């Protein structure tokens, strides 16, 4: 009988330790508590219920002026801003929040970052849309515009200058496609 009770206590202790360590590691992994994020791809956005509609770029190919590089835009979509609520680390929930995300997916041939895409906007969130990922540009807006002007910045080809004084080489325009979801969302021009 003592062996059974001892075995039950050991198992209970192991389960408790596992849950405690797992929760501790999960909370350590959360780098930004309840921070807004964007969907990893268009399909996820649609399946999660965040998708609002698409934008059409004035050109789906950007030829960089200072480098032998083409950027091919494959998709541009808008979604409701959202975050992963990690208050319960064991079962995080996806929750909508204020604002909107606009994501530009693209492909390129080189691995180095020699360009950036920046929205020309006065939107309080849009002006903070810094940085670019390997295959997409993520922007946040307080209000969804009908049209978004994007400037193409290239790293200065002079290695002594580089990103300290980038070169603006092009502008593309993203036009909102009319859709039922777009007209039902809270958008402004």
Can you describe this structure?
- With 189 residues, the protein is of the alpha+beta class.
- It has three helices and nine strands; from the N terminus they run αβαββββββββα.
- The chain has helices at 2-29, 42-48, 180-184, and strands at 36-37, 51-57, 61-63, 70-85, 93-107, 115-120, 136-141, 147-154, 167-176.
- Strands 1, 2, 3, 4, 5, 6, 7, 8 and 9 form a nine-stranded antiparallel sheet that branches.
- It is elongated.
- The mean pLDDT is 85.
Brief write-up:
This protein has 189 residues and is α+β, with helices and mostly antiparallel strands.
Subunit arrangement of the protein: single chain
Major pleated sheet = 9 strands, antiparallel
Distance between the termini: 75 Å
Query: Secondary-structure element sequence?
Result: HEHEEEEEEEEH
Radius of gyration: 23 Å
**Strand coverage percent:** 35-45%
Structural class assignment:
alpha+beta
Spans of at least 5 consecutive residues whose pLDDT stays below 50 are none
Q: How would you describe the shape?
A: elongated
- Mean of residue pLDDT? 85
Tally of DSSP helical segments: 3
Q: Please report the total strand number as a whole number.
A: 9
What portion of residues is helical? 10-25%
